[in-house]
Amino acid sequence: MADPESPTAGDSAAATQTQVDDTAAKLNNLTFKIWPPTQRTRDAVLNRLVETLSSESVLSKRYGTVPKEEASAVAKLIEEEAFSVADASSSTDEDGIEILQVYSKEISKRMLDTVKTRANAASDSAPSGPAEADSNNVETAVKDED
Description:
Protein name: WPP domain-containing protein
Subcellular location: Cytoplasm; Nucleus
CATH class of the domain at 35-119: Mainly Alpha
Domain WPP: 32-124
Order of helices and strands: HHHHHH
Region (Disordered): 118-146
Structural class: mainly alpha
Main location: cytoplasm
């Protein structure tokens, strides 16, 4: 077993300390930039949006699912609009986290608006129920009598 006081052990410890110091200096100079997101990240957001819109979820139970082809087009539009809004609100002084939060909130808001609008349009175009049909018949009958 080597003696910890021997020159080789001291040289090894000094070399290790130098590596640690070099790594720490590199990490101190490292900047981590989260805005704008990479294309890979934006593509992952798109894929998740498509999945959320087109598959069973809490959202779809309330507002219905969107066919995959339509979900893909809608997701692309939602992501692009959210990116534009977030990018326009960014400045070099702002923290990237804040801009990322704007981006995330815009995506959520636009996704919810889309499914609500789609659900409302579907319910507006649905055939009228028997109660509506009866009131229409009564109204027509009254007009015919006049």
